[in-house]
Every structure is written in structure tokens, then in C-alpha cells.
Amino acid sequence: MDMDAERTATIVVSIVCLIIIGLAAEDRLSDWKETNMQKKNGTLTVEKAVVEGAKVTTEKDVLLKELLESLDLETGEQEGRFRIMDAELTNEIVGTLRGHFAENLIYNIPRRTSSGKKEWRECDLMKNGCPYKGKQPHIHILGVGYQGMLTAIRAYGRMELEVPEPPEMVEHGGKLYWSAYGVARDRHTGNEIGRWYLEAVMRKAGNTFIENEFGASICQSKALRNVGLALIPARLMESWIEDYKAGKLAFSVSRAKEQGYGPEPEKAKERKPRKQKEKAESTATTPGQRDLEAVTKDLAEKMGVDAKELDSFSAGYFETPGKAMLSFNRALTNVAAMTTITEGFSEWKSKQEPAEEGEQQEIEM
Length: 365
Hints:
By secondary structure, the chain is of the alpha+beta class.
């Protein structure tokens, strides 16, 4: 009897536990369905809170958690392609940070695979030629780089990019990652998107791991690149890629305008009339009265004449006091100038003397 009672109690406890677990799973499933429905309907926003147990988080936190969990699921061919593209993008961003110029706006990376072909149009677009062309089955992985993204959004126009907060470190599975949240706003359509990006804090160097010195900047740049490309309409991006495959200029503004996009036209700048600068009077040709009197006195002494008479002569003989000053200075150091002024003064004085005698005669009468 004791054995039967104990067995019965065990069964009852097991049933109760299963019921509790089932109810909890049902609540969890209900929350998951509700969250996904909100995502599909577009009602889950950055500002809206999602309750997870006792913790209240925003959509940004939910997206970051999903991204961290996805790290455990990356396997196979897709992961291989992602790693190839990611490595190319990392090299470009590090080169940009060091001041190097990115030659290729679109990555064209060949990769051997049994499901590929021996010849592609993309083979001839590679700068140094495709090493697998006509030899081995392969594919070409095309992707837009960081500089390519910047060129694309300039051609698309009216888009804003930002990382609202500096990159921060997060831990997952015993590893540290830089995390950055990029935001893009499209003023053509009014759409806005935000996405996380993770970059490992440590990078592999040979058989060991060292700190990724550019990790935070790489993470931020990749976050901006991803949200920028995510908002550009797929039809326009496909047109640009086809232009590249045809050997034409990729990311042309004309292609964007064909589809109703493109940057805002530049406003014509109003040309302000130039202000004419007032010519400053030269101090060399407009001396002060004291300067002119001093030079006149020196010249009068050198010529052996009366300084007042020489001053009266200069007032009629020269057009301005400045010219008188200049001529008197030359006369003090130049024989020819002295001769000219002496002759001019003598002629002037001879004309003044008869007038003075006539005036005296009129007074006597």
C-alpha cells in the first residue's frame, strides 16, 4: 500500500509540473506572437516598450538580443559569404581611417564553388582579371562598400544618417563585442530605420587573438552602411548594379532622377554687389603743412631766397601741396630739379616786382 501511495503522489506531482510548464510556455508563445504581429504591422517602434518577464525593454534592446542570438545560428554557405564581404568591408574602413583611398565602390569577389560557372560578365570587370575565368566553376560576390554607400546616398539625396550613441561593449557567449545602433531617415518617403551592428573586440592574428584597435569605429561605420543601403529603394539599387555590370558608372545621379529621386537642387546664391573700396589718400602726396614749411625753409636757404616768397611761388606754380613737397625734396638732392625750380622762381619773382612798383605809384598819386 505504501508503494502505491508513493507512486500515486509522484504521478500527481508530475502532472502538476507539466501543467505549470505548459501554461508558462503558452504565455511565452503568446508574447512572442504578439511581438511578431507588432513587427509585421509596424506598430512596434523604438519608443514602445516590450515586457519580458520582470524587465521592460525597448525595441532597440529586442533587436540587439535577436542579433546576439543569431550569432549562434550562422552556418554554411551564407556564413561563408558574409565573412568574405565583412573582411573586405573591414579592410576598406581601416584603410579609410588611415587616409587611404578606396578604389572600388562595389566589391567584386570571385569564389570557387561547384555550383558556379567558369565565365561571368563580372570576370571582365575585375581590375587585374578573374583568376578563375575559363578554368574553374565559381561565383562572384558583389557588394557595396562603405565609400560606395556614401556615394549612393549622395546620388539618392535627402537622406540623413546617424549613430545616436557612441558604440558600447556587450558580452555574449563569453565573447565581447562592440555594438552600435545606426539610424537612417529618408526625406523622400518619410521612412526611418534603425539597426544594430556587432564587431568583435578581439581579432585573430595568426594563431592568437589581439585587441581590434579600430573595433569601435569599424562597428559604427558598418552600422551606418547597413541602414543607409537598407533605405535606398531596391529597384534603384538594382539599376545601379546593372550599370556596373554593363561597365557604366555606378551610382549616377541621372539614374536616381529617372526614378524620381536625387538630391535637392542647389539654391542659386544671391550675388551681392561688391563694395568699392575708397581709395586712401597717399600720405606721400598730401604732406602736412608743417612738413611743407620745413622743406620750403631748407630749399629757400639753399637757394638764398626768402622762404615766404618761395612758399607763395609754390602755391601758384604747383598744382597741389603734395607736388610742391615732392618737387622741393627732389630739388634738395637733384641738380636738374634745383635748376628748374630756381628758374621758375626767378621768372615768377620778375613778374611780381613791376606789379608792386605800380601799386606804389598809385598810392603816391
